[in-house]
Design a protein that fits this description.
heterodimer; A: mainly alpha; 87% helix; B: alpha/beta; 4-stranded antiparallel sheet; 10 helices; 10 strands; binds adenosine-5'-triphosphate; binds magnesium ion; transport (chain B); ATP hydrolysis activity (chain B); ATP binding (chain B)
Chain lengths: 261, 257
């Protein structure tokens, strides 16, 4: 009898739960950002995480970008050959890489590498009382743990994407000139001529947003974790999954904002 | 008496879900004295300390430090209070991303009371007080034995010369001689530095050594409070059973039922 009401009530509860979750997350992020502007400033923590994200992600990001560029050139060439449009290879490669693949692939890789590590580290600190200990040691955990990570992620990702873009285009160039018979200068000018500043800038802005989301998810789920090693494991998984989904969703939203006119 | 009360708890309550852990804890701790809190495993001793420090929000009740209700403090006042508080966590809670010396002087560095260069020397000094060589300062906490970690955590708790210090099982896991050394250190904190100490321990010899006063928590309430020397012959059957470690007694009776 009360079934329809129950369904509505259940739905209501789910929506309320979800919005409470999002609300708490927004407050968490705002709190961490506010800490960035509150002295004292500790560059030490920021540098540690910046190096961790930017420098130590370089090899895997570089490798991924290089191979993606190579495959992209190959695929575009074989596909476009059917329409006698092989000359478009250079422009397809450079636009796909700078607008989409550079930021998104870098984001997904860093989510797996860094987001997971952050959730695990902060989660372990939570379940072993280290976060409580910070507070008894005159240190605000949001300022010490979360704020520098968010800043480092937001600034490091664009840098990584510059590298990814460069290597991605280079991968395409190598395949095009070495195995597809393109002339080097023609390929390069073909890339350069179609590229607009907005293509690169939009990619870098996306990267900054992704970097923020990845570190935010890592910190948030780490911070919330409870219940020992198992809880930390769950937090890690959630952080990576949430960051990956958010990257894809925000990629769509940002693309819409930048390019639909 | 109330003029020199450091900590005053009234009707402190805390539940985790269905489980009632603190069910109206009333307790007074005199300034510049040492209080020892006793109680069975899982009776809520650590939770009591965390509620006093505001690390766990109590469900109900009053927590006063220096006559001010700390549950109503502003963010700034709470930070100021924690600035002059030290805490040894039961599991140490050392930061494993930092070397031992930086752990020990973490608070002094955070408060900019010391340069990084001076912190190494200060760390060596405090480590010596807990019976550790200066060379331990360069190790990572994960390279230490359990007892060494405990002593580093203790060094971290007292390095800033706090005004109120909480020790959650300071001597658990230490050999008897080192345990006595640590007890002496806690007594020094109170007698020489004028700190107020609040300790949790399961070791009766240690409780008598470090405590001026003692209290026992059972089923979420303080069932006895008095002088620490009285432990073992307080006249309260439950406390005496606990203090003498007897198998038969009122507490066991309750377990059986
Ligand atoms: N964060 C928490 N979530 C849920 N339950 C908790 C939490 N912290 C403590 N408890 C519960 O509260 C009770 C008291 O815990 P507490 O750590 O205070 O015990 P204790 O008296 O310090 O015991 P021990 O001597 O073994 O350290 C335990 O039953 C524990 O299960
Ligand atoms: Mg405990």
């Amino acid at each position: 009898m009360t079934a329809p009401i129950d369904i509505v009530a259940g739905l209501g509860r789910a929506v309320m739960g979800a919005s409470a979750h999002v609300g708490a997350l927004v407050i968490f992020a705002a709190n961490a950002l506010a800490q960035l502007f509150r002295p004292p400033y500790g560059p030490r923590q920021f540098l540690r995480h910046f190096v961790e994200i930017a420098y130590f992600s370089l090899p895997v990001v570089a490798l991924t970008a290089l191979f993606t560029g190579m495959v992209l050139a190959l695929q575009t060439y074989t596909g476009f050959a059917r329409f006698n449009a092989e000359s478009a290879v250079a422009s397809v490669v450079v636009l796909s890489i700078t607008r989409e693949l550079g930021p998104v692939l870098t984001g997904l890789i860093v989510a797996g590498r860094v987001g997971a590590a952050m959730a695990a580290e902060i989660g372990t600190m939570r379940v072993t009382d280290q976060i409580d200990a910070l507070r008894t040691l005159s240190t605000e955990p949001m300022k010490y743990l979360v704020a520098p990570r968010l800043l480092a992620g937001t600034l490091a990702l664009p840098l990584l994407v510059v590298v990814a873009n460069t290597l991605g285009v280079m991968g395409g160039f190598l395949v095009a000139t070495l195995s597809l018979g393109f002339a080097g200068p023609a390929y390069l000018s073909g890339s350069w001529d179609v590229l607009e500043a907005m293509d690169v800038i939009s990619g870098l802005i996306k990267a900054g947003v992704f970097g923020f989301l990845i570190t935010l998810m890592g910190c948030w789920y780490g911070y919330q974790s409870q219940g020992g090693a198992q809880g930390v494991g769950k937090a890690t998984t959630k952080a990576v999954v949430a960051a990956s989904i958010l990257i894809l969703a925000f990629d769509y939203v940002l693309t819409q904002a930048f390019f639909s006119r | 008496m109330s003029a020199n009360l450091k900590i005053r708890l009234r009707g402190l309550r805390k539940s985790f879900g269905e489980k009632v852990v603190l069910d109206g804890v009333d307790l007074d701790v005199a300034a510049r004295h040492s209080m020892v809190l006793l109680g069975g495993s899982g009776s809520g001793k650590s939770v009591t300390i965390k509620c006093i420090l505001g690390l766990i929000p109590p469900d109900d009740g009053v927590v006063e430090i220096d006559g001010r209700d700390v549950t109503r403090l502003s963010r700034r006042d709470r930070a100021e209070l924690l600035d002059r508080t030290g805490m040894l966590f039961q599991n140490g809670a050392l930061f494993d991303s930092l070397p031992v010396w930086e752990n020990v002087c973490f608070k002094l560095l955070a408060q900019n009371r010391i340069t990084r260069r001076a912190a190494r020397d200060r760390a060596a000094e405090v480590l010596a007080q807990v019976g550790l060589a200066a060379s331990v300062g360069d190790l990572s906490p994960s390279e230490l034995s359990g007892g060494m970690q405990k002593r580093v955590a203790l060094a971290r708790a007292i390095a800033s010369k706090p005004d109120i210090i909480f020790f959650d099982e300071p001597t658990t896991g230490l050999d008897p001689i080192m345990g006595a050394v640590i007890d002496g250190l806690i007594v020094d904190c109170v007698e020489k530095l004028g700190a107020t100490a609040f300790s949790i321990t399961h070791d009766m010899a240690s409780a008598r050594r470090i405590g001026d006063h003692a209290a026992m928590i059972h089923k979420g309430r303080i069932i006895w409070a008095g002088h620490a020397e009285a432990l073992g012959h307080t006249g309260n059957a439950m406390v005496d059973q606990f203090a003498n470690g007897e198998r038969e007694g009122p507490i066991q009776m309750e377990l059986r039922r």
